[in-house]
Amino acid sequence: MQNNFLESYIAAFDRIEGWFSPDAALMFMAYNEVISAHEVTGNMLEIGVHHGLSAIAISAMRSDGAQLVAVDLFEQLQERNNRPHFVRNMTAFFGDLGFVRCIAAPSSTLGPADVGDGFSFCHVDGGHTAAETYHDLDLSSRVLRPGGLLALDDYFNPAYPGVCEGAIKFWLEHDGALTPVAAGFNKVLFQKPPARFDLNEAFNRRFPYIPHKTVTLWETPVQSFSSFGAFIDVGASSPCRLVPNDSFRMDALLAFQSADVTATRGGGTIRIPVRVVNRSSIPFAAGAGDARFGLSYHLLSEDGRNIQFDNVRNYFWQPLAPDEERTVDMTVHVPDAQGNYQVEADLVWEGMTWLRDRGLKTPRLRLAVI
User: Could you read off the pLDDT of 64-88 as tens digits, one per residue?
Assistant: First the structure.
């Protein structure tokens, strides 16, 4: 592989067709780096390769001498023959494809003897019915090495409810065969037990700079990610060794555009204009996604004690680029009780962090309720 593999690969997302994201690729690479450090290595399996966008990332994660087994219908669907695209895209990154074994067949017709064994990573992105998902999980779990990883596509995608249905059926009938560990970017990562190490504990030691929240899936705590690429120095990294982005900066300037406020009690709302300047190295994302940014506040007593930390958000509906500014009307619920309060403005990166927790200087104003 070329020295600038990751930069070239991420640039290729503009020209290679596929439903995959750079963030998903980096999440795969990070977790694979962790298991490799614990000597869990082996072949790679991908069910559903399309034009090879995710197969390129998975191939780049291989240990020396390992194989990629690519399962797809390939030329069996003549009107959508993706083999030439797959071969061309893979060759552009790896040259000799002697490490690739293609199996042109529905995965539902295959068993462990057909694909082999000794896999450390499996990516399941084939048929999306409940029966196909169940079979692919069963097949992959059988050929995975203990401690190896399985990535499942579209688990939470409402357009493909069969994936979740098939996965739940597999869990209920094979409890303990796979342990969910992480979710993000339309993928769920599972690990095959037994493992000699706590995967997420090892991940957090190796990648303490990548924020996440903890959620529950299959009655198990898993790490949920909303952003990955912003924290990785792609130019300095390789698929097997990710390097933190030291230029990453998360900061803003918040300034109230009004003096202290007086409001009448009774449960209504008031709007307080706040000037927001993005001093970060990334845009403040907008829209309805999980990782959007919003202006909010913390309600404090007159002497600064916390009364209510979480309050209504005013999300950005247009991204705010680095060094850009905007005045946002912050919605504040008027407390029911009379008295003096403090309103502390803050920015939330939804699902990730409050910027106050990352060192943001948060302004306060006095709210008098009469």
Answer: 999 999 999 987 654 556 889 999 9
Q: Is residue 360 part of a domain?
A: yes
Are 246 and 354 contacting, i.e. CB atoms less than 8 angstroms apart?
A: no
| Interval 245-260: pLDDT, tens | 999 888 999 999 998 9
Residue 40 clears pLDDT 60, i.e. is over it: yes
Distances (CA, A) of 149 to 30, 75, 80, 172: 12, 29, 30, 19
Which residues does residue 270 pair with via DSSP β-bridges, in sequence order?
332
Query: Is position 210 within any domain?
Result: yes
3-state secondary structure of 231: helix
Q: Which domain range does residue 129 map to? A: 5-231
CB atoms within 10 A of CB 343: 21
Residues 224 and 258 in one domain: no
Query: In 3D, which of 311, 303, 302, 307 has the Cα closest to residue 345?
Result: 311
Token digits of residue 42: 């082996």
Q: Are residues 206 and 349 in the same domain?
A: no
Query: For residue 184, what are the β-bridge partners?
Result: 187
pLDDT band per the 50, 70, 90 thresholds, residue 211: confident
Handedness of CA 29, 35, 37, 42 (dihedral sign): negative
Whether the model clears a pTM of 0.85, i.e. scores above it, the answer is: no
Domain count, the chain: 2
Which H or E run includes 59? helix 53-60
Sequence-ordered strand ranges (E) for 192-301: 213-217, 220-224, 252-256, 261-263, 269-278, 293-301
The owner of tokens 């780049």 is 60
260: CATH: 2.60.40.10
- Alpha-carbon dihedral sign for residues 40, 41, 42, 44: positive
Residue 302 lies in a domain: yes
Domain CATH number, residue 96: 3.40.50.150
Flag whether 239 is in a domain. Answer: no
**221 bridge partner residues:** 216
